[in-house]
Amino acid sequence: MSLKTILLRTINQRNKFVNVAATAVRLTQEQNQYQGEDGRHQNYRRNVATVLLGSVFLKTVLTENAKDEKEHKSFEAGQKRDDLPTFRAEEVCKHDNKDSFWVIYKSGVYDVTSFLPSHPGGEQILNAGGLSIEPFWNVYGMHKTQDIYKLLESYRIGNLHEDDIVDHTDEELWVKEPFRDKRLIVKTSKPFNAEIPAKMQIAYFDTPNELFYVRQHMPVPDLDAEQHRLQVIIKDGRTRTLDFSLKQLQMFPKGSVRAALMCAGNRRSEMNEQVKPVRGISWQGGAISNALWEGVFLRDVLLYCGVDASDTKGKHVIFTGSDTDATGVQFSTSIPLSQALNPNGRIVLATHMNGAPLPPDHGRPLRVVVPGAPAVRSVKWLESITISEDESPSHWHQKDYRSFNASKTWETADFASAPPIYSLPVTSAICDPANGDTVKVKDGCIEVRGYAYSGGGAKILRVDVSPDGGATWLQAERLQADDAPPQQHYAWTLWTALVPVPDGQTEIELWAKATDSNFNTQPEKFEDIWNIRGVLSNAYHKIKVHISH
Ligand code: HEM
Ligand SMILES: Nc1nc2c(c(=O)[nH]1)N[C@H]1C(S)=C(S)[C@@H](COP(=O)(O)O)O[C@H]1N2
Ligand SMILES: [Mo]
């Protein structure tokens, strides 16, 4: 039964909506609790602890979330408006098709028919035809921003009858979220998205696990390593499924890779501020971190499972995680099979991150790490690997993480014909000082530090810094890099440049750009690489700082 049918039935039976999404997640969690003695005890202990800590912990979390939400919501959508007509839920329900598409938010009724073709989340929106969008937005929490509330309100046509208004509280969905380090810079709390502060990026070559940036599309699943299984499904005429416990995976030789993960949207905020608005989390430079990932090589597992390395043309490897959206769809994306089998690719099915079991936020107990690719391909909470003639059909694969030229709009961009992003261009950022800082001159120089990174196994050859708007360039003299061989270089490079400052100068504009081992370098401006999603935002990093002598 589809979520929509469930919702409609509920409306008919009780003239009331239920938060089906929350129920579905609760049921999965209950199921998880009955998967075996160990799991049960762990969960029992955890529950007791949660109850004991409950009053303190939950209150803190809820107050923080409330604070968060308040900041986002200084504009309130869905308030009752006396100038508009009132509709019963039964009437709203009828407008559930592309010709007439209405939705409910709190007291508000909206006709979003004309918005459907340009919805960044594609046809997902159709699930909410004639219904409240709240249960959906509880899962897709990135809608809960000022801009989107305002956008929604621009489609307002009426009020929902008071008897039909339902409280769609979403706390249940999120009570199992892991603890997070307070130093992370939170972008959205539900789902949890947070970047690492710039000065902490350069403090360590391998980012401590608790400071590693976090990017979630949904609530974090609570999985048990003892019970976890990985399915490998090979679809080539006769479908075969192999199934591994994490213990069984240990029969393969150990595999590891030192790799940075970078979100394709890293540095999006600069593109947004310097050119024109883009849609997506407004990451500054903190959606990249570096770690040592350990487990086994994907290549070894696929070959063991009988995947034919001589027949990769047109085939894909689909990775599916355990995290699930409001309609029961699991997170998934794919990469070409040829990329998955490339021995230089060093793709790891990782159980460990920097020597410790993966933290829940980073995929406990198993994630695939596809180094050199946008981090979206490194699927967390990995549950299955499917070899298929088709790419992943998921929304995240089909309707996101693709790029367009600067003239394409949400109305004209054709996602189906744009190739998925499977590698990353060269980028860099200055982490210390920060824009607007006051820096003290020492021995005639200021010290400038940052990171540089390139995708596809390319190494950083050089980082150049300009103290005068590009008139002259200095080469960063200290590069800290991994010693992986050419084509297998997946870590980031940390760099330091000493920039001379003439006596009496009180302000300086600093530019940084990196060059990789393919001799590709960053573009100067964001204008020409601007795209609706704000991905691959890799122009020179430019900041201004004050100087104290
Ligand atoms: C009816 C009013 C809606 C409006 C005005 C709206 C607007 C938007 C906007 C502006 C974005 C881009 C957000 C960003 O990445 O910054 C977005 C993304 C998205 N929306 Fe909606 N939306 C609506 C309803 C829905 C519903 C009902 C669903 C699900 C059933 C949905 C699913 C999604 C998804 C999956 C994305 C992309 C998420 C991602 O990037 O991970 N939307 N929507
Ligand atoms: N299962 C699952 N895997 C996922 C995601 C997700 O939401 N669910 N987010 C992806 C994206 S877009 C990024 S940028 C990285 C972030 O990894 P991190 O949270 O470990 O930094 O995970 C990727 N893998
Ligand atoms: Mo991402």
Automatic annotation (TrEMBL):
Query: Which compartments is it annotated to reside in?
Result: Mitochondrion intermembrane space
Q: Which InterPro entries match?
A: Cyt_B5-like_heme/steroid-bd (IPR001199), Cyt_B5-like_heme/steroid_sf (IPR036400), Cyt_B5_heme-BS (IPR018506), Ig_E-set (IPR014756), MoCF_OxRdtse_dimer (IPR005066), Mopterin_OxRdtase_euk (IPR008335), OxRdtase_Mopterin-bd_dom (IPR000572), OxRdtase_Mopterin-bd_sf (IPR036374)
Segments crossing the lipid bilayer: none
Q: Which UniProt keywords apply?
A: Heme, Iron, Metal-binding, Mitochondrion, Molybdenum, Oxidoreductase
Q: Which GO terms describe its biological process?
A: sulfur compound metabolic process
Q: Start and end of every Cytochrome b5 heme-binding domain? A: 84-161
Q: Which cofactor does it need?
A: heme b; Mo-molybdopterin
Q: Which biological pathway?
A: Energy metabolism; sulfur metabolism; Sulfur metabolism
User: Example GO molecular function term?
Assistant: molybdopterin cofactor binding
Extract the Pfam families matched here. Answer: Cyt-b5, Mo-co_dimer, Oxidored_molyb
The first-level EC class reads oxidoreductase
Q: GO cellular component terms?
A: mitochondrial intermembrane space
Q: Extract the PANTHER family matched here.
A: SULFITE OXIDASE, MITOCHONDRIAL (PTHR19372:SF7), SULFITE REDUCTASE (PTHR19372)
Q: What is this protein called?
A: sulfite oxidase
**Taxonomic lineage from the root:** Eukaryota, Metazoa, Ecdysozoa, Arthropoda, Hexapoda
